[in-house]
Amino acid sequence: MSIQKKVKRVTTSTLQEMKMSGEKIAMLTAYDFSMATVIDMAGIDVILVGDSASNVMAGHETTLPITLDQMIYHASSVVRGVNRCLVVVDLPFGTYQGNSKEALSSAIRIMKESGAHAVKMEGGREIKESIDRILTAGIPVMGHLGLTPQSIYKFGTYVVRAREEEEAKLLLEDAKILEEAGCFSIVLEKIPAHLAEQVAQAVSIPVIGIGAGSGVDGQVLVSHDMFGITQEFSPRFLRRYLDMGDQMKQAVSQYIKDVKSTDFPNENEQY
Questions:
Q1: Looking at residue 201, what is its pLDDT?
Q2: SS3 for 32?
Q3: Of these residues, 189, 197, 232, 269, which one is catalytic?
Q4: By Cβ atoms counted within 10 A, which residue in 49, 211, 214, 240 is the most buried?
């Protein structure tokens, strides 16, 4: 009888140890069982069930329309596909801003109904009360500063944030507020690399960047962008590791051709 090797799970403590030892943290998004299984088996440290599902899975222009029920559906699908990595789930727009009781209720629903390991929230000092309340329930919270897509209509654009000295100062202060509140990690999105490095050095918790340079403790990308499934999104920070969009189109075209020519199925592909 073979003895299956026990997989050592990644936890929030693991990420803290990685920062302390200088090992970079690798994080990708996933929204379904099959993608999560592949990414987890490859050895990813963290899967983010991002509200970017609103864009890449549902075709919305922004992340705002996705609901808590939909995030729980995606998160539970992902959790069933992982054995090793930490699974973090975005609290969607409208489920935590301005109402700490609703924030706690939303976070509890995600944890209970999906089996995820932590939640992520966008914002700094303005959501501290919600963070405090969620943490009292023992739910780990990952922060998110810089470009915060849920606030797109406030900013009006997806340009780089915190270029000006005053905004950079506020962002650094917010990072320290999130650390003091008890967040286990912070995502920094689309800010100058020198500022992101400064933040990573100023706080003791792991800082994960997306479009924030290499001076942070880890990186995150949207898997559909990194695999080349989505084609229209090409920011400077995105490196495409595959061109799956074109490969899938070619495969479908070949399938259509084979069906119409009766080449598929051949004798070996039928009973």
A1: 98
A2: coil
A3: 189
A4: 49
Classify residue 242 by its DSSP letter: -
The ranges assigned to domains in the chain are 12-240, 243-271
pLDDT averaged per 10 residues, the chain (length 271): 69 98 98 98 98 96 96 98 98 95 98 98 96 97 93 72 91 98 98 97 98 98 96 90 97 98 96 96
Residue 3 burial (CB < 10 Å; 0-12/13-18/19+)? exposed
Helices and strands (H and E) in the chain: how many? 11, 8
Report the interhelical angle of 165-181 vs 193-202 (nearest 10°): 30
Q: How far apart are CA 16 and CA 22, in angstroms?
A: 10
pLDDT at 5: 59
Contact 121, 49 (CB under 8 A): no
User: In whole angstroms, how far apart are CA 21 and each of 14, 51, 232?
Assistant: 11, 31, 38
Superfamily (CATH) of domain 12-240: Phosphoenolpyruvate-binding domains (3.20.20.60)
Give backbone dihedrals phi and psi of 141, rounded to 5 degrees, phi first: -120, 130
One-letter amino acid of 183: C
Amino acid 248 reads M
- Tell which residue, 227, 183, 234, 229, has the closest CA to residue 204: 183
Question: What are the beta bridge partners of residue 221?
Answer: 28
126 catalytic per annotation: no
Q: How many CB atoms lie within 10 A of CB 100?
A: 18
Relative to beta strand 207-210, strand 218-221 is parallel
